Protein: Metallopeptidase M24 family protein
Organism: Paenibacillus macerans
Amino acid sequence: MSAEEVRVRPEAALGGMANRERAASVMAREGLQALVATTPENIAYVIGAPLRTTNWSMQIYAVLPKDAGARPRLVLPTNRLGVIAQMGVPDAELYLFSDFFVEGSPVGQPSTPDIDLFYDLLGRTAVYPGPLEALAAALKDLDIPQGPLGVDEMRINPALYAKLGESLPAGHVRPAYGLFREVRQVKTAAEVARLRRSAELNERVEEEMIHLIADGVHEEELAAHYRDRIIRAGGTPAMIAVGAGPRSALPLIEHYFHRVRPGEQVRFDLCCQLDSYWADTGRTVVLGQPSEWQRRHFAAVRGGWERALELVRPGVKASAVFAAAVETVQRGGIPHYRRQHVGHAIGLELYDDIVLAPGDHRELQEGMVFCVEVPYYELGAGGFQIEDTVVVTKDGYEFLTHLDRKLFVQ
């Protein structure tokens, strides 16, 4: 399957992603009737499709009721209705605010399905003066006009957040960005499917890049190939850490100026989004025969990575995975090895709440998805990395990535 064949189809962008049962449980525990999303990630979680803003001040809210039988509500500016028509109507009731004017085409003029839907929605969707009035109408229709509400505080205008709190009984508006992230920790089957597709695209392009490595190849050529292939497949390239030789030890690389030479290692740490969901994979390649130093350090890194995976199962603390991985690397040939984490949850955010770190004592649960990585960076010498994505299963884990986990030699 080529990268282009992984392209997301518009009709695949819709469909519920939210873990309604888990969300209802969290809301019941917190005494809430609904969660209100304001960030692009949480809005996508509620309505099942990406709906991005053009600026930080634009207000879009998605209401996730505690009642799993109630449809979500989507509050958005009228000028965004055309985007809704293009992507298809999500599984949510629409509430518009602010004026926006378009004229209908004369009868008999050529049209398209999205234009027809846009015009139809304009004619039958109520428009309110502002976002809070539209939100109030949505809550009234859900029969929860007084809340209590958990509001994702990260993207609502602070003045509007304060005004919303004043309009409801005391304590009926609470910050909920953290609650959204808690709900999203355990992925639905639909989310795992999207993460699998995103990971598949990412590692297929990464494999192409491995085969491009040759004497004199510029880091920018490799990075440009990644950008081009991800975009052509319908994804969005993000972090493109492509470092050759001593630059392979730079954790984040955004400027490329080195050409690969025989004997040098190239470290990849590549991130993209496909249909809102992130992918993050890493590999190490040597041009020519690896040196003893390269083999020894890669073996230590791989040993720690394998040890981390041995502990990935429900009930194990994230901090325990970290401790075991670091100790294994230290015993395996890098006694001075230090690391802040050995992996992270991934989903609608690249770092999706839980981190396999010494200070994170939360337990892994079935359905969580993690990127497991134990990289090593030695400035002036080079870096090594294996990074793969796994979903936690009932008694262990399942890989979402399938590229060989070895020190590649070109």
Q: What stands out?
A: The domain at 189-409 is CATH 3.90.230.10 (Creatine Amidinohydrolase). Confidence is low (pLDDT under 50) at residues 1-14.
